[in-house]
Design goal:
5 helices; mainly alpha; about 100 residues; about 0% strand
Length: about 100
């Protein structure tokens, strides 16, 4: 089977996983905040991969590298994140 066809067949499972993530995240927020942070990190890495980044890197880590390279989007995002959590981009390097 061709890889594209396999991915199309997997689409319902991927959509179900998204629904499951939301339920599990809501439960973790109430019962186990450490688990909620891990689930949020996973979603962050997924979003970064969807934005053509590396699947094992967070958006914050990518933004820190972009900021250091002088890219405007990295500077703006890190400034915003650092206002919420001082030093966020620097702490997220390599995550």
């Amino acid at each position: 089977m061709k890889p594209r066809l396999i991915l199309l067949l997997a689409l319902p499972l991927l959509l179900a996983a998204t629904v499951l993530w939301w339920g599990r995240f809501a439960w973790a927020l109430a019962i186990n905040p450490a688990r909620a942070w891990r689930l949020a990190l996973a979603k962050d890495q997924l979003a970064n991969a969807a934005l053509n980044g590396h699947e094992d890197e967070t958006i914050s880590s990518r933004a820190a590298r972009a900021r250091d390279a002088g890219r405007a989007w990295g500077c703006v995002l890190c400034r915003w994140l650092d206002a919420l959590d001082p030093g966020h981009c620097d702490k997220s390097r390599g995550v």
